[in-house]
Amino acid sequence: MGDKQKLQLLDLVAQYRTIKPEVDAAIEKVVSSGGFILGKTVEEFEAGVAKYVGVRHAIGVNSGTDALYLALKAAGVRAGDEVITTPFTFIATAEVITWIPATPVFVDICPDTLNIDPARIEAAITPRTRAIMPVHIYGQAADMDEIMAIAKKHNLAVIEDCAQSLGATYRGRQTGSIGAIAGLSFFPSKNLGAYGDGGMILTDDDAMDRDCRVLRQHGSDKKYHHVKIGVNSRLDALQAAVLAVKLKYLDQWNKARQEMAAYYNQRFAGVGDIRVPEVRGYNGAIYHQYTLRTSQRDAMVEHLGKAGVPHAVHYPIPLHLQPAFESLGKKQGSFPVAEDAASRVFSLPIYPEISKDQQDQVVDGIAGFFK
Ligand SMILES: Cc1ncc(COP(=O)(O)O)c(C=O)c1O
Fold this sequence. Notes:
With 371 residues, the chain is an alpha/beta fold. It is built from eleven helices and 14 strands. It is globular. A seven-stranded mixed beta sheet has the order 1-9-8-5-4-2-3, with helices on both faces. Strands 7-6-12 form a three-stranded antiparallel beta sheet, with no helix packed on it. Helix 1 (12-33) packs across helix 7 (237-247). Pyridoxal-5'-phosphate (PLP) is lined by residues 63-65, 89-90, 92-93, 135, 161, 163-164, 185, 187, 197, 199. Pyridoxal-5'-phosphate binds at residues 63-65, 89-90, 92-93, 135, 161, 163-164, 185, 187, 197, 199.
């Protein structure tokens, strides 16, 4: 029982304890209604997220990965097209492009935010480019004004990967409301996490909304009538019920993460060569991850392992160096900023239930490395 309070990289049970009666009641309501697939529970949660982000349509699907795949299809990305994206992300971002099958075209990242560098996008555009897929990594928005301007000039669709950014703002606007279409993930570790897989597509566009609703249900516009080849990718009613409870707390939880990040930042000032997350003044970051950089990352991670300080590396290998993307023909040196970031980053525990004492323990663990 002593380990109840034990610090972890993420403690989903600690969060559950704070909302248990509401979550249990929401689950019970779905189970006793017998309505497990789509229906009112999912519709209400879709409406709640659409309102939260400020978009007209939200379509619940099985995962963030599926959300991005269906968003690409709805945005008109077709076989043989190219989609510009970042190599510094979770593999799902680029994986879904290959499912079309289209080609991911990587562009290096900004050294401060670690998001795609808009200044490098135009050089990557070819006659086959159909879309740009920025990722708001760790919950900080990419440079959307610049990206939208380039997209407009070259007639490209912008698909926002908001898997890590629900609640993050860019110049006062919610991420997910800026591009043509966006994908959210409700993977359990996300700031708004389900009790299993889940995802959602966001758009203001009526035609894309219709397409996504048809595609998620075997291409069906009405029962046993199939207008497209689709997939089976629906958000479970049980997950929607849990998520609807959690959505009410999202702003409060994100605010707690921001306060914890501010405290970490202050404590890490002057500690070794630690570089804290750099958030641009116009960005409202929600710290899906609190990710530091050091030139001695591998030794640091080893030290933290021995000292019992929870940590993770998001992400150790940029996508262009993953064996799965070997056929793209990129190599070490192709995207030096992403490669440098991948060699330096490591993430620390950040979730609303952590105490200041626990944050202090983490800081001490890291400071101990430099002694
Ligand atoms: C940036 C990014 N894109 C896409 C995904 C895929 O989401 P999911 O795991 O819900 O399929 C994730 C998270 O897992 C992610 O972090």
